[in-house]
Structure formats: C-alpha cells, structure tokens
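Spend some time on this chain, tokens included, and walk me through the fold:

. . .
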Amino acid sequence: MTRAVLYGIMLITTISHPLSAQNENPAAKPPVLKGPKILVLATEKKCPEELSSLLENLEAAGGKMKSFQADMIFRQEDLMHETLTLRNGRLYYQVDKDIIKARIHFKDFRQEDLEDPDLAQTVKFDEDYAFDGQWVTRRNERTKTLQMWEVSKDPRNKEAFRLGRGPFPLPFAIRKADVLQHFEVELLKPDENMPQSNHLKLIPKKDSTYAEEYVRIELWIQKETSIPIQISFEKDDYEITTVTWIKPTLDKNIKDSQFKLKPAGNDWTIEKSPMEEPSEEPEKT
C-alpha cells in the first residue's frame, strides 16, 4: 500500500476537523491556489515562532484526538489526460491506545472531461477501504470483490502513520519534527474560501523519500481546533488530489465492526494475501 493510495483515499490519511457546515459551502469545489503570498517560511534549522507554534498545536491536537468521523469530498485532477474525478464519501478514524484504525467509504463516482464537463454523470459506486491495525481491505460492490492484504503481524501501528516512518501517513498524526525534517514549510496567505484556517505548503526536500512522488503537499488547518480540514497534494505526473472533510464528529466511539469489511453474498470473490514470514537462514557450520 503506497503513500499515494493512503493520501488519495484517506488521508491518508491521513492522519485529519473540518469547519462547520454553517460557515462553509460543502458543494463548493475545494480551492486549488496558484502562487499565494508567502507569510512565513521555515526550514529544519530555522523555524519562526508563529509557524513553530502552529506545528506544535497541530501535533498536540492530533495526539489528543481519540476518533474522527466526517463526510468527505475527493477531487482528483489529471492534467496530463485532462480529466477530473469526483467522489463523495465518509471517513472513520479511531485511536485505541497504540492501535490506529481507519476506513473510507465512497458512495459515488463521477469523471469529467475538463474541456466538456457537461457530458459527465454521477453514478452510484459503493467502495470501501479499511485498515484494522493488521489488514488493509478493499470492498468493491460493483465487482463483488473483497481484497485483503496483511501489512503487519503486530496491530500496534502508531509509528506507521507518522511522516517518513511508515507507509500510512495521515494528517492526524503529524509531528513537528517530522515535518521540518522532510519538508520546507511555507505559511501562506489565508485562503478566501476558508478564512478560519491556516494554509501550509510543504515542499519535499531533495533527500526526502517524498520528493520521489510529490511536488508539493498543502494543508488547511482550522484555527480554532488545530485540526486539518483539507489536504491537497500534487504528484510529479501532473496529478492534483484534494480531500475535504465536512460535518465532523469527534471522540465518539466507533464500533469495531466498522473496520471489518465483509462480502454481501456467496457470489463474491475473496482474495486474501497474508504477510510473508521472514525466512530463517540456516546456521553456518
């Protein structure tokens, strides 16, 4: 499971408390800003007080959060092929001591030609991705398939959600030190579409593994709660993905069954891929 998958469907996830529906328009397209004014610039060696405080609050808020549920808007622009993919869904995220669980449910699918968007239709498309601490599961209603990949023998997985520490970075599990280690950070001028949020732009450092996939990552962080409300990332293949969370519920217990996906009938195909055990080398005599 790559970073791209997690950022695209969760994030991702990662690892992220949106603005109230009364203050924001859920139907509005997530903003894709071009060249906003830079207010503060930080590096690993020098981090101005304003940005340092923002990153510390972001880390503290994520560390205290026990669970998060929210409706979600997923938007992906493929500039090379001039298409736009739009999906609506819901995110479930829960922390239980050292175990993080997450699930994304998509309920529809729409793909537009950027030059002629009126031809596109939104179709019902139930699809789920879940992670229960050990298994990543994909459930596809249209193809009647359930695919499972074991990614860990140990469900204690908090480290796997940290930036640069594992394959599952989410904007809920961000640490200041990790951000400054892997990115040049810019605090941008507030976005007029989200005035109650701080807007950060993260440029991967050349020696960071993120530089292999991403041109930039942007975060919109709610000022009141210090929780991300939106994430956008641009890949080096001209693909821009933006995920927005709306109508949140925080710290309400989520039943464990939400993270256990099952087939809907006997005619479903189930594919299960256990994690390979490391081979033991024979002792040398």
Notes: The longest helix spans residues 49-64. The first strand starts at residue 38 and ends at 42. The CA atoms of residues 110 and 122 lie 5 Å apart. Confidence is low (pLDDT under 50) at residues 1-34.
